[in-house]
Amino acid sequence: MWCLAVAIGMLPGVVHRTARIGLRTTPAQRRRCFGLLVSAGDVWSCVLDLARWRRQDGLPPLAGYQELCCELAKAGPGTFGELDTRGARSVLRRYSDAWFATAKRRRDSDATARYPRRKRRLMPVRYYHGTFTLDERRLRLPVARGCPPLWVRLDRDPPYPADQIRSITLLNEGGRLSVEVTAEVPVTTHPHGRGPDPARVAGIDPGIIHPFAVAGPDAQGLLVSGRAIRAETHLHLQDTRRRARKAASRAPKPGQAGSRRWRQHRRRQRQAEAKHRRRVKQAQHEAARTVIDWCLQHRIGTLKIGAPRGVLRLKAGRRHNKRIRDWRIGHLIGCLHDKAEQAGITAVLVDERGTSSTCPACHRLAPKPRGRAFHCPRCGFTGHRDLVGGANIAPRTTEGGPIPTDERQHVAFPVEITHRRAGPHLPGVSSTRRDPRRRPHHGGPRGSPGRPRPAPPQTGTSLANRPPAEREDQPTPPHANRGKR
Ligand SMILES: [Zn+2]
């Protein structure tokens, strides 16, 4: 009996991880892949239409996966082009999940939850284990019976062993075809006495200037700078504006079909959007990876992440609203949470209200700092603003409530601070590689640093190899210091 218990106790947990991989296709393969996505969009539209008809006839809604599958079977083969039953069922699964998630939120008296209602031309298709074939970089997607087999090529090796891969999702983003590979990955096991210790707690204050400010035990701290991400967002907005201004005169009048040049403009805009999203997400993933590596190095077993839920709903004017939207806090916290889970670190969300305005030394309220430096007028404490947040988040419980004033529960305010950057690969991050979206400076081509050069090659994890002495806390101009960063 005990050996069974030991065996269960020793079973490592598993987590699901997803990687997105681009596809290399011939024009014919590309056409067929888009055909699958369009057919999936048709399935989605059919389900929405069905729901509408039933609502109009006063019939109860049809949302169970099994019932929807019965309806699909009635449609018969060949209704949805090359899309096979398993692909079509994945769309039904998506609808069913979305419907029940909304129903649950509405039961919990959330009146803003809406049932799926928007038709889409393209819908992602998911294929589960056993329906596709993955042979190194070659992937065979299942198609309807009678159609020739559809093989496509991945543009990199999947980062998981083949036997761990559970599903593959075909999707389109800004005209680029890619697949999301989801795998069941075991939680990292650490040698005894060297793994993360749950008693060692670190508080994390997510922000815009610093995506993660970590206050750990032993007066250790980590600051990840997100200025490159913010620059990327800023340039993308400028670029979008410039493009929109140029194309505005070509916009079709109401009732007109768009011209070819207008459609080209729209396509380019979608591509730029997708590229921007990819860049920001990649940088956020790297920032989270830096935090987790640092935590493992310091044997931190519990991460308390400040959840800024209240900030998101505040209306703070168009500029600040845009800043908050561009922050992508859901993704930021999500990737940190996932990476912590896989590393065997417990991550919990705590209410961060008041943590950035309480002095970590005397636990009294202090005025909101204008810049990066926090100063307590009562006891004279001075420290980095975001680390103050982190140090106050660490002793908090999940339920929120006042910050405990007990000295023993607090992590010591970080004295030794490690500085890292998020998005070191982003264009314009170093002086030798200017972002091509920036206008040449000094007025003309004479002052231009020339054509954009590729980023320096990266070795290993992109952020870890930098010398820790890189300080980047330049004083910010006073106009840039408003609001939550
Ligand atoms: Zn104080």
From TrEMBL:
Region (Disordered): 237-283, 387-485
Domain Cas12f1-like TNB: 332-393
Assigned keywords, A-Z: DNA recombination, DNA-binding, Endonuclease, Hydrolase, Nuclease, Transposition
Molecular function GO labels: endonuclease activity
Pfam families for this protein: Cas12f1-like_TNB, OrfB_IS605
InterPro entries associated with the record: Cas12f1-like_TNB (IPR010095), Transposase (IPR001959)
Source organism superkingdom: Bacteria
Family membership noted in the UniProt record: In the C-terminal section; belongs to the transposase 35 family.
Protein name: RNA-guided endonuclease TnpB family protein
Organism: Actinomadura vinacea
Lineage: Bacteria, Bacillati, Actinomycetota, Actinomycetes, Streptosporangiales
